Amino acid sequence: MTSFKRIEMELQEHASRDALTGLFNRRAGIQFIEDLLQQGETSLLPLFRRRE
Question: If 0-12 CB within 10 Å is exposed, 13-18 middle and 19+ buried, where does residue 52 land?
Fold first, then answer.
């Protein structure tokens, strides 16, 4: 791994987590939820549709 890539990954980590708690910040949390919903639309949604 190049030093540039390592620094880039560290910056991404700092940008997405709260410095005090280490939890995802609001922006990262919303992105995570949107990604889950998008995955659900393509793979999980048929499981929850009503059958007639």
Answer: exposed
Task: Count CA within 13 A, CB hemisphere, residue 29.
Answer: 7
Per-residue pLDDT tens digits of the chain, which is 52 residues long = 899 999 999 999 899 999 899 898 999 989 988 888 887 766 655 555 555 5
Burial 18-45 (b: 16+ CB within 10 A, else e): eeeeeeeeeebeeeeeeeeeeeeeeeee
Please provide residue 34's backbone torsions phi and psi, each rounded to the nearest 5 degrees: -60, -40
Whole-angstrom Cα distance, residue 43 to residue 52?
20
pTM of the model: 0.54
